[in-house]
Every structure is written in structure tokens, then in C-alpha cells.
Design a protein that fits this description.
- Strand 1 (4-9) and strand 2 (16-21) form a beta hairpin.
- A 3-stranded antiparallel sheet has the order 1-2-3, with no helix packed on it.
- It is an alpha+beta fold and 82 residues long.
- The protein has one domain (4-81).
- The N and C termini lie far apart (50 Å).
- It has helices at residues 31-45, 51-67, 70-81; strands at residues 4-9, 16-21, 24-27.
């Protein structure tokens, strides 16, 4: 019988949902980022933002998330301690 587990994790920055079943794990992007993507999609749907601009914003957002610059992370940690 398959067991399904859903949990909220905060290990990798942001609040993420972890779904696990039979040794397979799936982790969503941070919920904060999903809200950004959904909001951007809604703005495109009502023609407030043009689709190419939305694609550029999404790609930029993803690239910033994937780079995880250590210098900026250290600065953030230092500010948290202050």
C-alpha cells in the first residue's frame, strides 16, 4: 500500500511543500515564489503585463533563485545577527 506524506519545510530558504510517496520525493519552489508566478500570470491574463515581459521577469526570478550567491547569503546572515 502506498503511503503519501505532505510536509512544510523551510530548510532551503522560503517555505516549501515536500510530497513523498514510496521513496519518491517532490519539493515545490518556495510558496512565496509560487505566489509571484501566479500573480504575474493573473496580470498577463487581464492584459496588464505583456507576455514577453512576464517571461523575462520569470526567467530573471528563476536565475536569481538558482545562483544562490554566497556573498549575498553571508550578508543576509550578518544582517540577521545584527
Amino acid at each position: 500500500m502506498a503511503g503519501l506524506s505532505v510536509s512544510l519545510i523551510t530548510e532551503h530558504g522560503g517555505h516549501r511543500v515536500m510530497v513523498s510517496t514510496d521513496g519518491v520525493h517532490f519539493e515545490t519552489p518556495p510558496i512565496e515564489h509560487l505566489a509571484f508566478y501566479i500573480g504575474l500570470g493573473a496580470l498577463v491574463a487581464v492584459n496588464v503585463v505583456e507576455p514577453p515581459v512576464a517571461v523575462a521577469l520569470t526567467v530573471g526570478h528563476l536565475l536569481i533563485d538558482f545562483t544562490r550567491r554566497p556573498g549575498l547569503q553571508a550578508l543576509g546572515e550578518a544582517l540577521d545577527e545584527a
